[in-house]
Design brief:
By secondary structure, the chain is mainly α. About 55% of the residues lie in helices and about 10% in strands. It folds into two domains: about 5-45, no CATH class; about 70-200, no CATH class.
Length: about 200
Amino acid sequence: MIQPKLKKCKGTGVAKGYGCGDLNIKRVYGLGLKCRCYQDWLFESEEGKKKVAKATLKATKVRTEYYKAKELNNVVMSVKSKMSYVKTLVHKAVRLRDQYKPCVSCGKSWNSEFQAGHYFKAELYNTIKLHFDNIHGQCVQCNIHEEGNLNEYALRLPNRIGEDKFKQLNELAEMDKKIQKFWTIEKLEAVEKQAKFIINQYK
């Protein structure tokens, strides 16, 4: 294996005038990286200071971008975690609110296995997936096996919430696809407060 050739530490180009003459393998502008004269050039010469400033700016930019990405990721994870918690509360509140009421779709008499069924599907309508007018007590057959039994749901829901609220819910569904990044911690906390109020009524 051919060994790299040792050369004297002697400044070249922008580092001309610096150099101690010691033999080195690794050099920058002719200056040995292990030599004190390389540091002297970096912090004493105008060209060296420019190099340090450029490297510092680059490192700062990388760190800034890293912290911004980390902060954004934390926000996203916080919203995601909060969403999961609030969703559980909302479904519990709906089941309590609608206990003893018949299935919103088929009219089957209430039982303890009733679920919180969405009229506008949660996976398709992000902005109203926690809306209390959009979620109602539903039997397992309609919610799971008949995928919501939406035709019957549509017929019975206006009687459950009133024509005006039904119209408003449909308008919100129309607007849903035009809204991006809807959920925030603040909005989720507002829904959480509403859900807890309903739950506390049935304690």
